[in-house]
Each structure stands twice: as structure tokens, then as C-alpha cells.
Amino acid sequence: MTVIGDEGLIQLRGDGAVLAQVASTNLTVTDAAWGDTVTLGQGDLAVIGGAGADALSLGQGSTGNSGEVLGDRGTLDYNANGKVVRLESVPSLSEDTTGGNDTLKLGSGTFRVILGAGTDALTGGDGTMTVIGDEGLIQLRGDGAVLAQVASTNLTVTDAAWADTVTLGQGDLAVIGGAGADALSLGQGSTGNSGEVLADRGTLDYNANGKLVRLESVPSLSEDTTGGHDTLKLGSGTFRVILGVGADQMTGADGAMTVVGDEGQITLRADGAVLEEVAGINLNASGAAGADAVVLGQGEHVAITGAGGDSLTAASGNFTLIADEGRIGFDADGVAIDIRTVDQAVLRGGDDTVVLGDGNGVVMGGEGADKITAGLGEHIVLGDAGVVLATTGRVLVSIATIDTHPGGNDVITLGHGRHWVAGSIGADQVVVGDGPAIVFGDGGKTTYDQAGLAVLAESTRNDVGGNDALIAGDGPGVLIGGNGDDAVDGGAGQDVVYGDGARITWLSGFLVKAEGLDVYQGGKDFIRGSAGNDLLVGGAGQDVLDGTLADDQMLGDYGGFTWRNGRYELDKVAVPTSPSDLISAVNESLYSLVVTPSAPKTQDTSSGAVTTGQSASGSETGAGGQGASSASSDVGSALSGNGLRAGQNDLGLSHQAPQAGENQDLKDLLQGQMAVNEASGSDGSGTSVASVAMQANPGHQAQAPEQPPQTVRRRPQQTPDETLAQAIHWAPLQTHEGDKPEGRMTYDQKVTIEWSVMNGPV
């Protein structure tokens, strides 16, 4: 059946056997419109409703239908064999005000539909459906067998927008909603769907075999203010979606979903089999962007939500997500290998919320104060802008932040698994579960070898950063606070923790060097190693280090550690103006062991003497602000007495009570965020401290022990808040089992802790 609802023409070929063209016309001065009702049964249908609010029911309740439908005016062109090769709507002479609010009901089959102007409602069955909600064109290949292009157009002076409703069943679906607040429900409640969706205006391009190779949104003539707040509901399957401008809402079931929240492009390989690039970039003049809400089921999902305060929630699966604008490049197998944010001077990212279930993925929050939560799995998370590069075969090359604009105060929470996280600029909060982790409070970069093993992790932009909180679960980790007053807890396991900037080097997966960066940039950091063999470095600023003498090596200021001779040895660089640090260990020891900057010292295990040019000690090492003077005489086998004293700004280590180098009261020594809470007894000049309160660790109080003498060996679960060290005695260093130094520390003749150096890589 071939039907025109209003005025028009039907042209056949010369022999009258097949159609050549079907077109509506309206040559009246008033450009009048009429509301027609058309009901057709099963078959091959060609219908132009024309102007007015038409009601069309075509092939309802039947299958095997096929046809072309124009809800308003337009043209259908046919090839020499009578196959449709082009459908195009024609705008009204009166600025398209007479399109009409059409109602269209289709049975199952293959249909190509342009609804045209007006607030239209379409309900279709299962099958292959190609639909444009407003004006546009549908171009097929010369033989009329497959699609070549589907594009929306709006040639009216007013650039009008209409809120259409489209509901389609299961099938292979291609839909352009057009301008206006459209409601699209595609394949709901069914599985095995596939399709392409542009919620606003845009273009779909197909290859010679009718396979989609490109989706692109097109900005409105009126600076894209008419995009509309669209609602999209998708069934299970494989969908590629560009939501366009507006505060859109999308719900997708299980499957493989590729989503661009605002304007952008989705490009596939030439054969249309796999993705080549996904880009989310706002091209309109106003830079308008909406707060989109996207909910996805289980599956393999790729999303760039675009500018604005967006939210994305997904069930378990694998994810590649940029919460603001960006680009994602894929290899020939469709694996994401180039993931990066894109800065736009006109735009601000917005405060995004991302909630992901269990699975693996890459997430970039972009600009704004973002909140990112993910379950179990392996995650790469950047709170702000950045770049992730990999090679074919899913082998990482590098991960780096891009700190070019002010970042937001991000909150990142990840479950158990293997993680790489950078909060970037801003006062960020990062919590990761059990498992290996590399965490930067501010900017950072990590490079990998050909086997995908980390070879270098270093902080970037050490001149900017916020007051971050980094907390890791059990497992080996590298945590770098960066600039600002940071609180860092490495959790149980072998950790390297820096309060300020740092560079970490591995060789074939083995950590060989940890060093601080930018000695003059740093804040008042609180650093806790928790249980395990840890390397803790405060860096510049007045820091608090909370470790375990049984396992940890601690350095109050700028410096690091190098793996030499089967152990991690201290590399210390003194800072002339470094303020005092507080280094505490299990049972609240207050000490600062420092070495001469120009020549580190070590314990000569044969004679007990301290010599220059070697390592200072094993896992008990702690170092504070300025360097101490060397022992005035051989300290002997006990390594005790007054031979080793603190520098000007450090807590002293001696046979007497903890004291400053110039015998100041501890009250004078603890400055900045540390304050004496209670004092009694005697120190080097008359006062010892029984309780020290630190604002960097609220509620932290230490009291002198009342228990009888005891020995504690490796008690990582014991909190460091139980007792204050009023006097510290060092037992001789021992060498056991292949040059693994061990030793003993006794607090005020009451509590003894035995320790040994870290063994093996972090």
C-alpha cells in the first residue's frame, strides 16, 4: 500500500511497474493541515501522513511487515527496481507550525520512519527499526538493501523542538530523537538487542555493508539550547548512545553500553565490528551542558558523561569511564589503550558521582568535587584530569595526572583488589581495600615495562595540592601524600609512605629506591605505617610519623632509602630550615635518629663502633629534622649514653630522658600542630611529658606504662598510643641469617620491643 494523507503525488517508472517517487505537497496559501486516520494491515507499506495531527496504524498485530513512513510532509525516492533509496522530510511553508502531533503504531518488521514536526508518539513492535523523531533524512545504498546515512535536520527559522515519545520492541534499532525533551524506550524487557541512539540531533553513518561506523551529535542552530531533557530506557544488548545537550536520564540493562553524556562522536573500525574512538566534546557556541544521570546493568561499559554534575551507576563488569569530557582510543581488537581527559576553557566539569559494582576499570573524575565508589576488582582512578596509555594486549605503558586546572575535593572509595589512584589537585579523601596499591594524594605518574610491571612512580606538580587523607587496607603499597597537610595510613603490609613528593623505582618488580622530591615543598603530615615492614618518610614540614619499631624504617624529613647489600639503607639529605618532627613507634617512643648528611653511619657489628660511609641501621631507623653531631667517642657495644644527640629541631635519643639538642623543654620543641597536653617529672631541663596531644591525630594520647617489665616481639596489632617513652636504651645490633640486622629497644626499663629489618621487596 502507498498512501498520502494530504495533497501530494505518486510517480511510477515509465513502464508503470514500480514506484519512482512519492511526495506530499501543499500549495495552499494558508498551508492548511488536517488530522487524518489511516489503518493498514500486513504488507509492504509506504505512507506520508502530511500536515496535521494524524493517527496511523500500520501492520498492527502482525509480523513480516516492511515500509517507509513520514509522519508529516516529505519525499520518498526509489531506484530503478522500485526499492526505496531515500526518505526526507520537508519543512512547512509556515515555519513548520503545522506538523501536528501524530500518533503512529507499527507492527513487527522492518520500518524506516521520520516523525517530523510536532509532539509525536510512536509505538513499534519487534524488528529492524530506523526512526527520526523530528525532521531528517534516511539514505540507503543504491540497491536499497542497507542504510548509508541517517541524519536529523531542522531547517525552520525558529529551530523548533518537540518532545516525542518512541517505544520499540526487541531488535536492531537506530533512533535519533531530535530536539526536545524526548522519551525513548527501546528493547525494554528483552535481550539480544543492538542499536544506535542519538537522543538529540545528529548523524549516523554506515559502511557499504550497512554496518554502523560513526555516530556524531550536531549542535543546534540556536546554540543547542533546544536539546531537551531526554529520558532513555534500553533493554539488554549492545548499544551506542549519545545523549546530547540537556539534563538527560538513561537506564540501560545488561550488555555492552557505550555512552556519551553530552555532545560527541563514537567511531568504529571500518568493518563496524569494534570501537575505534569515543570522544565527548561540547561543540556548541554556549558550551551548555546538563547534569546527566546514567544507570547501567552488568557488562562491558564505556562512558564519557561530559561536562556538568553527572551521576553514573553500574552493576558488576568492566568499565572505562570519564566523568567529564575526554577521548578514549581503542586498538584493533576494541581494547581501550588511550584514555584521556580533554580540557575546555569554556567549561567546568561539575561535581560528579560514580558508583560501580565489582569489576575492573579505569575511572577519571575530571574537574569538580567528584565522588567515586567501586567494589572489588582492579581499578585505575584519577580524581581529576589525566592520561592512561597501554599497548595492544592490555599491557600498561603509563598513567599520569594532568594538573592544569584547579581540581575539586574528591572522595574515592575502592574495595579489595589491585589499585592505582591519584586524587590530584584538591583536598582529596582516598580509601582503598586490601591488595597492592599505588596512591597519590596529589598529581602523580607511573610508567611500566614491557611486562606491565611498574618501573617508576613519582609525584608531579609538587608546588600545588590539597590536604589529603589516604588510607590503604592490607597489602603492599606505595602512598605519596604530595603537597599539603596530609594524613596517610598505609595499612597492614609492606608499604612505602611519603608525606610529600616522592619518586619510587622498581627493577623487574623489585623496589630498589625510594626518594623524596622538592625538599622545600611540604606540609604538616601525619603518617602511619600500621602493621608490616614499612618505609615511612615525612618530608619537608612538621610531620608526625607513627610506625612499628619491630618492622619500620622512618625518616622525618627529605630523603629516602636504597636497596643495598640485601637491605634498605637510609639516604638522608638535611634541610637547614626544617621544623621539628615527631616520630612515634609502638608504645609511643619519641625519638629522632639522624645521620650526618655528607656521610651516613652504620653500626660496625664486630666492634660496636659507629663508622662513616656506611648504613646507619636496619628497620629501626628514624631520622628527623637537622642532622645530629656524630658521637664524640666510640659509643661502645651498647650504642647508648649521650654520644648520639638530636639536632636543633629533633627529639633527642640518649641515655637520659628525651631532650632537645639545646636542652629545651619538650614543650618548646613540639611546635605547630603538636602541643603538650600534660607534663610531670623531669627531663633534660626539668620537665618530662606524660601525655602528648597531636591535632594531626585527634584523640591521640600517650601515658606512661604501669605494667611490669615485659618483652614484646612483633606486635603490629598494638596501637602506638599505649605508653610514652621516658627513656630509650639501645641493645647491641646483632647479625643473623644472611646479614639481617636485629636489635632491641627498652622503654624506661619496663617494655622491650625486639625488631628486625624489612626482608625483601615492598
Automatic annotation (TrEMBL):
Signal peptide: none annotated. One of its GO terms (molecular function) is calcium ion binding. GO terms for cellular component: extracellular region. Residues 599-612 have a biased composition (Polar residues). PROSITE patterns: HEMOLYSIN_CALCIUM. It holds the Pfam family HemolysinCabind. Residues 628-641 have a biased composition (Low complexity). Residues 598-658, 697-721 are annotated as: Disordered. This is Calcium-binding protein. It comes from Limnohabitans planktonicus II-D5.
